User: Fold this.
Amino acid sequence: MNLATLLASDLPYWAQSLLRVLGGLVAVLLPAGTVVYLFLFKMMSFMQSRLGPMEAGPQGSMQLFAEVGKWLQKEDIYPARADKFIFKLAPLIVLASTFLLVVVVPFGPDALFTDFESGVFYALAVSSVSVLGILIAGWASANKYSLLGGLRAAGQLIAYELPMVLAVVGVVIQAGTMNLQQIVVAQNAGSMFGFSSLGNPYVLTQFVGFIVFMIAVQAELTQTPFDMPIAESELVSGYMTEYSGFRFLIFFIGEFATAGVFSMIASVLFLGGWAVPFSWFGWTSIDSIDNWMNVVGPLILFTKMLAVVFFIMWVRFSYPRFREDQLQKFAWKVLIPVSLANIMVTAILKVAF
Amino acid sequence: MSLLGDRQQLAYIAAQAADARVNVELETEGMTLNIGPQHPATHGTLRIIARLDGEQVLWADPSCGYMHRGYEKLTEVRSYPQVTALVNRIDWLGSFANEVPFILAAEKLMGVEAPSRAQHIRTILFELSRIANVTLFLGDLGVQLGAVTPVFFAFRDREYVLNLIEGATGGRFHPNFDRIGGLKDDLPAGFIDETRNVMKKLRGFCDQIEDLLFGNEIFQSRTRGIGVIPKDVALQYGMSGANLRASGVDWDLRRDQKLPLAYDKVDWKVITHPDGDSFARCWVRLQEVRESTRIVDQLLDTIPAGPIMAKVPKIIKVPEGEAWVSTENPLGEMGYYVVSQGDMGPFRVKIRSASFNNISITPWLLKGVYVPDIITILASLYFILGDIDR
Assistant:
């Protein structure tokens, strides 16, 4: 019995809610943990010709638990002049934005938290909630480095919100819907030039949009080359400078969980999401999909997510960082015109075909 | 001077005009940012006091002395052979290079010259410490600009050089190997072959860094045209070493002065760059590592047989007199002015270290740049804290 059939049956409201919360925790924390261990610990070490953590568990696989244990034990420190309430609130807001994001991601034909008609719109809206958390973290720390980091983050995230939205518009035009589940269906039930065995993953037809989207995601996640808000060689740790222990852990989880969730959204929008091309199994619509896809679907999505995160992390480990003004120039002078042109071309082709 | 740009001049005028209210139009207040003494970017305890308008620097002032250890005074209560153990610690990344000018100054006063084999080995070790030093700079450069990977390559390949130095001298960081009249020991067996291998690896490392960092568009946009030092300004501030050569001044003490070292016996060239910006400084250093590996390779071929110690008395007393010897160290010109009154130890030693002069240009250079550029410029000027404070 899988999650979706459980939810569909007549469970009481509290049990359904509990299941949803547990599902949300798994959907946020599992990718975060995997990304940290697989990419931050192991892939990074491999690229830098070292071993990475090796002691905790086989191949250091328990290292993350050790780290979490360490952070939990640490003293909860806050600066004397900090605005205490806001200071404590900030990491939670950042993490909350991640949880809000995962709500609309479809994991299978029935395995989804909510079926929003305007899912794309919602996802792009709540992803900017984290800016608020970062900004108040920077302000409430009463630290000049944090302040600079917070303001840089605000400028950067607002600048990159726009190309991200514009890049997704191309997908929305092509799919004709803002419902993420429908976008998955449109990709896998569709065909390219009458050739239907691959479906129509939008990474092929919307590759410009995909590249712009990934660059914007990189900036939204404040990963190198767009990591000026943290910039450890300039601003010590940016808006996180004064955070330690549990609160730092929340920022840390938030960073990698958001990377995971954004990659899921990228896979849903551009790589076909949880589904395989429908023609492989002779499905015609979403209703005719076999029930086992509710179990296999999340795994497929997870695999695609890891592939996308791999590229994010690859860039992160090899590139130096931009300067703040260069970053703004890049967003406004390159990415936005490119994505606008992409929308124009998509719209024209949509009408033409 | 047109390279300076209006931005720097305007920022200078603004700073002069109003101290607290820096932006007259918006009536915003400036912010004084202390970069250091404890800061991840300064790899040591240098403090930069920067007055900011937003992210733009109005003026910046380096404040040093947080790590002053009083070596000049300490040398007065040490005997000559003991001093090398102290001066090792001035520029701790290229420590053997610190010993050489002091020993040469003492030899000059005593009228002793090291045998030819000792001169060769000195030069080899001198260049090895340059390689060990600048290799770390090339990796650290990446970290300062936000790329995390190059520094691990740098540490990996620098380890080979440190192993060589350790094999020859017994000390990885602080060899304390140079003696008045020669060297402590001869080279160990197998050193020459091993060094050839390592030099090959180091050239590979240079190629790798060139691919990974110098060819990167982001790296270039972060360093080109940032922190431009024109020729005349560089000379006025007494800069030396790669910083000066990157400003287009063809000046290298290894070539320009006659010292009992083996540089005149090998074929090598002085690298200069006309631009004077941060990229030029980094590029010159990268090329100099390549050039150093060539020098070492050639010296290994021509190393003569013979003693490694000249005839010097067991108890060293340096005759009365004064001597100044400076060499081209990894960071720039390093010199010792030794005053002797005929005792076991020097009467007074003045140490001229390169980093102090190199960073003295920062107040001029940092006007009008952005906060990230402070880090780029400081990284490209390349100082070692021990070399500033002594």
Observations:
- Residues 4 and 17 of chain A are 13 Å apart (CA to CA).
- The first helix of chain A runs from residue 3 to 8.
